[in-house]
UniProtKB/TrEMBL annotation:
NCBIfam families, per the entry: PRK05422.1, smpB
Subcellular location: Cytoplasm
Membrane-crossing segments per the record: none
HAMAP family, alphabetized: SmpB
GO terms, molecular function: RNA binding
GO cellular component, one term: cytosol
Cytoplasm is among the record's keywords: yes
High-level lineage: Bacteria, Bacillati, Actinomycetota, Actinomycetes, Mycobacteriales
Stated name of the protein: SsrA-binding protein
UniProt keyword annotations, A-Z: Cytoplasm, RNA-binding
Organism the protein comes from: Gordonia crocea
Amino acid sequence: MKEKGRKAIATNRKARHNYTILDTYEAGVALLGTEVKSLRDGKASLVDAFATVDDGEVWLRGLHIAEYGSGSWTNHAPLRNRKLLLHRREIDNLVGKIRDGNLTLVPLSLYFSDGRVKVELALARGKQAHDKRQDIAKRTAQREVEREVGRRVKGM
């Protein structure tokens, strides 16, 4: 029976804090059998992961997928580079944008979509310390506005 829907495996929670997200892409990941089994157990980390474009191919580097517990000598290397599967026009578009500006490719999440492993990639620009402070101030102000509106609705 085929799986339906989207099941999250791992998310990169610091990515939205450290980067301004400009655009997102969904890409497939070329994996080995023991990697998929380990992912089904939820053993992956996107903490230091990033993507690069080399010779017209997109590679995911720094993604840690733990070795499969029941694997044998056929087990995979936990930090090997993994090829991302994108359409040629998407890759060409990414190459142009990365070359023009000070942009990078950051994985936001790793998940199963209808039984296939996908990664959500973001075309992002790094934030400076003052940008992060401004975002925190905006969030705090928005939270206070929502709290005050809630109080007025309740009649307090």
